[in-house]
Structure formats: structure tokens, C-alpha cells
Design brief:
There is one protein chain. Helix content is about 35%, strand content about 10%. It is built from nine helices and six strands, in the order H-H-E-H-E-H-H-E-E-H-E-H-E-H-H. The protein is globular. With about 220 residues, it is of the alpha/beta class. The protein has a four-stranded parallel beta sheet. A two-stranded antiparallel sheet has the order 1-4.
Length: about 220
Amino acid sequence: MLPESWTGVLGDELEKPYFKELMGFVEEERAKGPVHPPREEVFAALDATPYDQVKVLILGQDPYHGAGQGHGLCFSVRPGVKTPPSLRNIYKEMHAELGHPIPDNGYLMPWAKQGVLLLNAVLTVRGGEANSHKGKGWEKFTDAVIRAVADRPDPAVFVLWGNYAQKKLPLIDTERHAVVKGAHPSPLSAKKFFGSRPFTQINAAVGAQGHQPIDWRIPDLAA
């Protein structure tokens, strides 16, 4: 259920009463109708980016609630799915800031494989109802993920876009880790997001921490 590299730091969470209640709730929800992402992709972000390889943690809110969209990585969608508005704005900023072409897809696995943990604060959602699994226990679990990364000797960069993500700041030792804050890339706050140059800030911090900077280019899938 939990990827092996995370078991040592998160395994205890799975035994806690809140987590068992949470799993019961999610299974009840699945019995009633669609829940996204599929069961096997709930921990996909942790699977794609092992614990000891996290250089950057980008925090999202909850999964996309449309059928076939989310696959367990925040802001990312499966190949062949239309790029959602927030990710389109992330790509626009990337293009303006770094000159990288805007890709034809929203599949962010190339970031995850370089050490960018694409973590949602809530890991499941009822089909068609945004935030429907908020406040059921996922936040306790993902706070434990944030703390686990923050407790490592090896520093990381935490990317907190929007007020919701920035509420997690107390979980992070800002003396040891870098934090990149800014407006959320959603259409509601994109005017403040554009021009914030987050990718330059992130890579400067990653480099200062002694790690290889992230290559933010996403390859086109239509060849």
C-alpha cells in the first residue's frame, strides 16, 4: 500500500485510529460511486518520488474530480487528458520565465522522477465534487509526509502556492529548508502568480543545497 522507501517514516501513521477511520470512509465512498484517483494510485506521488530523493515538494490541495483526470500527482493529469487551467498557467509562467515550450500534455511524471514530490494535501475525492474528502483525515497523513521531509538531514525546497498551502509553513524548519511562496496558479489568482518566477527561485535553492537543478521541460507526447 505504502511505497517501500516511505514505510520507515510513515508506517506508524497507518496504525493510528484516524488512518483506519479514513480508510473505512474512503472504501464506503468507493462503494457508493466513483472516487478519484483509483485505489492503486492514491499514493502515486510517494511511489514516483522516493523519500531519500525528494529535492522539491510542491503542495496541491485535492485531486482532480473529473473522470480519468487525476492519477495521484498534484496538478498532473494522465496523458491524453486536456491540461487543466491551473497547470496551463504554470506552463505559461514556465514559458515566460525559462523559455521552455508549452507542452501538449499535462503529465508531470518527468518532474516527479527528478525529485519533485507532487503532493496533494487530500489524496482522494468523490467524482464530480471538489473538496468532498476534505477534513476526513488525509490532512493528518500528508502533514506527516511534510514533516518527514522536513525532518531529514538533507534539505529540500518547499513550494507553497496560495493561502491553503502556506498554512503548512509551521511544519517546516525554514532555517534548514528553503520555502518558495506565491499566489496560487488557478485562474482566480493567476495575475499575481504570473511574473513570480518560481522556477528560477526553486532551482537557485536546489543548487544552493548541493543538488542537481530540475529540468522543468515536459516532452510532447504527440510525436
